[in-house]
């Protein structure tokens, strides 16, 4: 034993410790990235199916869905707080506290939905208040009348998914999301168009498909968590009726800044679309394509960032200061490698990527292609900044540090990002490219601020004191 402690051949070196963090980061994060892509496939299927009903139905569904997603994003942000709380408990080997965090995640899901359902019940009146066409508002109200019930299973998914992520069982999250996507596609086809003897329900059918899809995914994950031999001992539904208000409000306290940050980032991209829209329809079409491509590649750092948050929390719960650093910096290095590869792809074949979304025989498509290519070239740099900021922010969330990153996000997105976009895009006359450069600048500022703060975590007292 003394020889081994002194550095026998099989004792781990610092280099091997760093290398040993790469595979766990990938095995935890890549299935989550795949699950995000599967979720995007669900949304794409809905658009494609509803689009066959007509432009009016599609427009109404987009109005309703965007309103729904804004509220879902906020709820999802709240529930992300389950991960650092549960991971720290696991790191400290306190299964009871882990179970309490998951159980109160279920409570947050239910109690959040109650006022949201009331709000969504009046979606038609809200859209009319915002000046939308009465026919579109009516159709959106019909669609939302069913879609709103998706909110509860969709949020419960996030709570049980947090548990499975902490337990390093993310592969099942991918398979469950794929199952939900298949259920959604089948029910969309059958219920929207009235196939195989079913009634033609159109938008109502699309809403029913969404409810069943989310419910299927949730039940898949819940049954796995309850009956898997290594997970069932945690009894995540044990005493589910019992309140635990300190943990409940701890989730709300940690999760609210995360939720606001997510909404702030989403609204930044909404603002960018408005600014590009000032330049005309053709630039806006190119912007939409470039953003869709960038969104697909961004799913990789999304998954890796959740892995980073989980592994940082686990190490912090164990009191492993070096492990915290390795988990965070490994995730950043892996993410930059992926995003660098995507950036190289964007630089080398931008016409091919944008052309996939266009009918190049249409004369107008050449103009859209030119704008899309110019945006994709900027998006190559944008990719690196976006990957850096989500890892930096989630590393801090893993330490339970959510308030200061919120201020970084508000400053970076809305002060730096919007100012640069307006200045470069319109005052400097760079047009859409200037707007995209502004977005990249805003994301880069958040990346720098958050990663510098993570580097100074010990001096700032962010590590848990065991």
Kindly describe this structure.
With 466 residues, this protein is mainly α. The protein contains 17 helices and no strands. The chain has helices at 2-7, 14-51, 55-80, 82-91, 95-121, 123-129, 134-147, 151-166, 170-193, 203-227, 245-277, 281-318, 321-348, 350-355, 363-398, 403-427, 432-455. Helix 6 (123-129) packs antiparallel against helix 7 (134-147) and helix 8 (151-166) runs parallel beside helix 10.
Features:
17 helices, 0% strand, disordered N terminus, 82% helix, 466 residues, single chain, mainly alpha
Radius of gyration: 23 Å
Average predicted confidence as pLDDT: 89
**Percent range for helical residues?**
over 70%
Number of helices: 17
Strand content: under 5%
Shape call = globular
Along the chain, the helix and strand elements come as HHHHHHHHHHHHHHHHH
**Biggest sheet, in brief?**
none
Number of strands: 0
Helix/strand class:
mainly alpha
User: How many angstroms does the end-to-end distance come to?
Assistant: 27 Å
Q: Are there runs of 5+ residues with pLDDT below 50, and where? A: 1-12
């Amino acid at each position: 034993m003394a020889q081994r402690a002194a550095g026998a051949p099989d004792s781990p070196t610092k280099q091997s410790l760093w290398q040993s963090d790469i595979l766990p980061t990938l095995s935890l994060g890549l299935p989550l990235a795949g699950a995000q892509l599967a979720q995007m496939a669900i949304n794409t299927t809905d658009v494609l199916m509803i689009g066959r009903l007509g432009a009016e139905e599609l427009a109404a569904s987009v109005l309703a869905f965007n309103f729904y997603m804004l509220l879902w994003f906020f709820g999802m942000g709240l529930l992300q707080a389950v991960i650092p709380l549960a991971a720290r408990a696991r790191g400290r080997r306190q299964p009871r506290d882990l179970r309490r965090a998951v159980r109160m995640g279920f409570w947050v899901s239910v109690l959040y939905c109650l006022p949201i359902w009331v709000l969504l019940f009046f979606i038609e009146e809200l859209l009319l208040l915002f000046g939308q066409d009465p026919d579109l508002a009516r159709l959106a109200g019909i669609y939302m009348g069913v879609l709103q019930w998706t909110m509860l299973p969709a949020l419960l998914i996030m709570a049980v998914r947090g548990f499975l992520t902490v337990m390093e069982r993310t592969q099942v999250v991918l398979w469950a999301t794929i199952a939900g996507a298949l259920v959604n596609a089948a029910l969309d086809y059958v219920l929207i168009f009235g196939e195989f003897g079913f009634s033609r329900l159109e938008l109502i059918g699309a809403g029913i498909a969404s409810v069943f899809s989310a419910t299927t995914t949730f039940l898949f994950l819940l049954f796995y968590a309850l009956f898997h031999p290594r997970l069932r001992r945690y009894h995540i539904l044990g005493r589910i009726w019992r309140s635990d208000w300190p943990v409940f409000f701890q989730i709300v306290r940690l999760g609210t800044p995360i939720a606001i940050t997510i909404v702030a980032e989403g609204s930044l991209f909404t603002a960018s679309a408005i600014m590009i829209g000032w330049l005309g329809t053709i630039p806006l079409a190119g912007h939409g394509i470039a953003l869709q491509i960038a969104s697909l590649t961004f799913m990789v750092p999304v998954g890796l960032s959740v892995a980073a948050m989980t592994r940082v929390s686990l190490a912090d719960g164990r009191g492993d200061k070096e492990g915290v650093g390795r988990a965070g910096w490994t995730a950043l290095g892996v993410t930059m490698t992926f995003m660098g590869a995507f950036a190289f792809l964007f630089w080398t074949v931008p016409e091919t990527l944008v052309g996939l979304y266009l009918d190049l025989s249409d004369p107008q498509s050449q103009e859209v292609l030119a704008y899309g290519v110019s945006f994709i070239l900027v998006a190559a740099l944008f990719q690196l900044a976006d990957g850096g900021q989500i890892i930096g922010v989630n590393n801090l969330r893993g330490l339970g540090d959510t308030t200061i990153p919120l201020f970084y996000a508000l400053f970076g997105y809305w002060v730096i990002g919007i100012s640069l976009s307006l200045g470069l895009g319109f005052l400097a006359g760079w047009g859409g490219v200037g707007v995209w450069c502004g977005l990249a600048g805003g994301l880069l500022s958040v990346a720098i601020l958050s990663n510098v703060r993570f580097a100074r975590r010990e001096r700032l007292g962010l590590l848990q004191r065991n």
